[in-house]
């Protein structure tokens, strides 16, 4: 894949959204195939580069009636490289409504120009934010791929617990080797694909003045996002029937955040919805098995394209 960096205006004055725009390594000029654009929103606590192994898998599929013209992976305003450029705005953040992330997604869409043919692809908080964006501004997306979304009915004890636990999480290491040892041996991270761990070390940390390495997304910001689920996660769940575009849900069979039976129940009244459960993975299925995740994304895109023609993307 080829990658270029682009900085968008956020929905709030002075803030920025940093993105990586990925495209196929070889030039594609086949006018007979459907040209698609992906817009990707990551999970809480993570960053845009963690999409790369899955995107590599998607770009590797050949002989399709469609091709990915561009895949635009965003760093949410208080995560990754966006957190660096927005640091003065987010240093003392305690509460981050999920509608902030959704509004920023819509702001980026507005800067892409039209006509456009966007498939939104999100994971966890990013998936819920895409749903909120589509609820806030219907027909923003041609289709949505929603990966293990966080959709709870409100008053979530789990979200409150995660907010507290995150504030106690280690986020600073003396050097990169110490950080690597931490992530490689920690029970939470060691089940990840090695490529994901490597990318997290390379792009999820920044070196500060004393030479140590810290998470770009500070625990305070990650905690603020968990706290911000209070109203917005229930709102997204309650308004799923308002989502009119075709939606594919992909969830992990052992996920505690998006138990398959819960997703099946809350999506039953959606207009056009498909739900697939991936085996032997949990909530962070994208991190555990990015290749299988990518294969399912290709299957979903095949189904979307078979349903009808798309307008030509113009970025």
TrEMBL record:
Domain of life: Eukaryota
Domain AB hydrolase-1: 38-291
InterPro entries in the cross-refs: AB_hydrolase_1 (IPR000073), AB_hydrolase_fold (IPR029058), Carboxylesterase_BioH (IPR050228)
SUPFAM superfamilies in alphabetical order: alpha/beta-Hydrolases
Pfam families per UniProt: Abhydrolase_6 (PF12697)
Protein name: AB hydrolase-1 domain-containing protein
Species of the source: Coemansia spiralis
